[in-house]
Write a structure and sequence with these properties.
Strand content: 15-25%
Radius of gyration: 20 Å
Order of helices and strands: HEEH
Helix content: 25-40%
Distance between the termini: 42 Å
Low-confidence stretches: none
Structural class: alpha+beta
Shape: flat
Largest sheet: 2 strands, antiparallel
């Protein structure tokens, strides 16, 4: 069996850090460490020149604010529009191309 040279003992890591067991734990850990660092970037296409511009970045903190706002919007829909009991689960599907929106 081949192992990564950074892990010479051969013991596989279960988690990158103690207490991290879910994807949302990874996000929260990254947010704490890198709050003001670049997280999500995109390059706008210029139709006139036919080329892409420089990257425009959002920080981890800015992306986290968008996550919270999106979640709040879903809760608003569930409580005020769909009018379902908060203990009842509802499903959503999101189909999108890779873009920051």
């Amino acid at each position: 069996h081949y192992r990564n040279s950074l892990n010479p003992g051969g013991q596989l890591k279960i988690s990158p850090e103690p207490g991290i067991t879910k994807v949302c734990d990874i996000w929260q850990s990254s947010l704490k460490k890198f709050k003001n660092r670049e997280c999500l970037g995109f390059r706008k296409f210029d139709e006139e020149t036919g080329s892409y511009g420089n990257y425009v970045w959002q920080t981890y903190e800015q992306v986290n604010e968008r996550i919270i706002n999106f979640g709040n919007g879903l809760l608003h829909l569930q409580i005020n529009i769909i009018k379902s009991d908060q203990t009842e689960k509802f499903k959503i599907g999101i189909c999108s191309i890779n873009r920051p929106e």
